[in-house]
Amino acid sequence: MISAETRYLLPSTLLLLCNLVVATYARSWDLAVVIGNEIDFFARNSTPMGHASIGEAIALTGVTYDDTTRTMYLSDVKNNVSIFSNDLTERNFTSTPLLKKEKGMHVDGIVFDAPSRTLLWVDALKEIIGKMHVPLNGEPGDPVVLHNLTGSNPRGIALDVCNSRIYWVNSNISNPSIECSNLDGSNRMIVTRENLYEPLAVAIDHAERKLYWIDDVEGIHFRIERSNLDGSQRELLVQNKRQQPVHLAVDNEAIYWSDLVHSAVWTMPKNAKPEDYPTKFKSYYDPRRDADPAGIVTRDNVGRIDCVTIPSATEKKMKLALASRPAPETFNNLTTSTEESDLTTESSKYCLNDGQLNKTSDTCRCKPGFTGPFCEISLCHNYCLRGKCTVDHRGLPECKCTGTFSGARCETDVCNGYCLYDGECSVQDGRPFCNCKYSKGARCEEPNDVAEICAIYCASDRVELPSISVTSCRCTDSNQTAERITLTNSFQNDMLLPIFVALTALFLLMIIVLSYYVNKLRRRPRIKRHYVVSKGVTPLTSRPQIPSNQCEITIENCCNMNICETPCFEPKLRNGVPRSNSMKKEEKNSLLDNMEGNSC
Fold first, then answer.
1. Cβ neighbours of residue 73 under 8 Å, at least 6 residues apart?
2. Could you read off the pLDDT of 569-578 as tens digits, one per residue?
3. 261 by DSSP, 3-state: which?
4. How far apart are CA 163 and CA 180, in angstroms?
5. Are 174 and 203 in contact (CB under 8 A)?
6. Residue 586: count of CB within 10 angstroms of its CB
């Protein structure tokens, strides 16, 4: 096992660093896509904002960006170098290699953590996750192996800036999963492994604190899903086919993925409506071009992210709901009195639920878990269905479920139908646990010995056994009952197979007999007659008298012949009209005349 501090000798790829001085810090692009040896920069509305050709590159794959130093990091899977650029025009800029070349390396994705100045990447061939320190000044640190993932086939990687954690996908179809860990490799855990086929890419949405991933299903269909960072509240966003998505990115409004089948980048709103469908953000299809779009990076997820002030999705929905409320109605167009007006003005200075008043703007700053103009709305109100609601460090409601309930809002009874054969269900460590009575197994799915069941269950001479494949038992002699049940089951198993075999053999015998008689009846008899004839005046006899002057000929029934090569006659059974003696003599004379050339 390779430790996390083991030095990583990286083959076949170099990561390059390039620093360019930019005159202004104004945001000039929202999305960057790498393809071949080029980088294209776009605005969010797909308007091209710039282009850069990297002379040293061949097949750029991974891309990430450091907004603090305006540095872009890239990986190249077919060259000795991986390069970077952050300029929107074609310029000559210097490249600094970060990793030396060796064999057997394929950097599929890279991320950069600006606070710790750490570059991390996933290697699909080496099946590792590596990292290295990239200081502002001086030489970069030595690369080390963070995770050894032999047999997992790791692919995409994403960075959770606010929690200093990395996420990656394992695309081994026999055991696919999504995992995460701290930047130092500690606290490694599986986020989800349910209903995955071959996950290929992953992304983090810092604005709503969501995890996105692509799952390629049997090479035909694909899905794009999302969940909370812990894998809960899973949602299906896109389900389509005839695409091969390989890289994924997300910003504050939409999701983006690169597709090898159409050689294009697709997009779709991340909070899509039923009528929304994926659209082509940029098509790169060109028969003359041997390159496809690969890595995508968005400025929203790599820029200066304020993890403290980012509003959560729940808070946004609350504010929108409050903003859409109608104004208080007036009755008969009457205005309030001076006393009422003063009371309202005075009340606005006091905030509920320990909220703090901002005297300058006369607004309330609410504690975590409360919202509204006066902090009067609790996020926990009617949130948990079966449990206790608390507010986490992000100000979001969180449920601690009681009993056998689980889920984000304790809405699911995990014991419902879980234990079989009257097993008693309870929850241990958040998972259902069965206490079996008449069976065994994790879900009490394996019945115990019948005699033991009868000894425990039966209380009278004849009692029905619930949920068991026997009908009754006699508790006076459980051994005899068990023996009878065993004999019954044995009889059923021993008799059914011989009966089936006998019926099959009888059926085959009948087919053979019928085939024989049909074949026999189809044969027609071949009728032959023998005549002895003479060329002289000697009359015909049934047997030859003088072998030298007479010969014997065979006449067959012409109905049995394709071509009558010998004289033939019509059998009596087929003669329709009797013939006279004169006709018979004429036929005999004609027969003798035709034998003139006969050698007999």
1. 15, 16, 17, 62, 63, 64, 65, 66, 82, 84, 110, 112, 119
2. 555 544 455 5
3. coil
4. 11
5. no
6. 12
461-475 pLDDT per residue, tens: 444 444 444 445 554
Tokens coding 388: 């206790």
Which tokens go with 330?
């007036």
- Residue 120, phi then psi, degrees to nearest 5: -125, 150
Residue 469 has φ and ψ, to the nearest 5°, of -75, 15
pLDDT at 365: 82
For residue 247, the surrounding DSSP H or E stretch is strand 245-250
Alpha carbon of residue 385 to chain centroid: 32
Rounded CA gap, 229 and 223, in Å?
Answer: 18
The DSSP secondary-structure symbol of 435 reads: E
| Rounded-to-integer distance, Cα 144 and Cα 290, Å | 34
The residue type at 445: E
The full length of the chain comes to 600
Residue type, 514: L
Three-class SS state of 359: coil
Among candidate residues 592, 594, 596, 595, the one with its CA nearest the CA of residue 537:
592
> Is residue 158 within 8 Å of 166, Cβ to Cβ?
yes
Burial annotation 371-399 (CB, 10 A radius, 16+ → b, else e): bbebbebbbeeebbebbebebeebbbbbb
Instruction: Kindly give, in sequence order, each residue whose CB lies less than 8 Å from that of residue 242, ignoring residues fewer than 6 positions away.
Output: 220, 261
Q: What pLDDT does 347 receive?
A: 37
- Between the alpha carbon of residue 187 and those of residues 36, 167, 179, the distances in Å are 37, 12, 11
State the Cα angle at 319 between 314 and 325, rounded to 5°: 130
- Give the orientation angle of helix 450-457 with respect to helix 478-522, to 10 degrees: 140
Report the alpha-carbon distance of residue 280 to residue 257 in Å, rounded.
10
Closest CA to 411 of 440, 438, 382: 382
The two tokens of residue 544 are 């030859």
Q: Is a pLDDT exceeding 50 seen at residue 330?
A: no
Question: How many Å apart are CA 494 and CA 497, to the nearest integer?
Answer: 6
As a whole number of angstroms, the distance between CA 529 and CA 537 comes to 22
Which of 574, 576, 565, 560 shows the shortest CA–CA distance to 528?
560
Asked if 367 and 380 count as a contact pair (C-beta separation under 8 A), the reply is no
What pLDDT does residue 554 have? Answer: 59
Contact at 8 Å (CB) between 528 and 554?
yes
Work out the mean pLDDT of the chain and round it to a whole number: 74
Alpha carbon distance 155, 172 (integer Å): 10
Q: Whole-angstrom Cα distance, residue 480 to residue 484?
A: 6
Structure tokens at 494: 């021993």
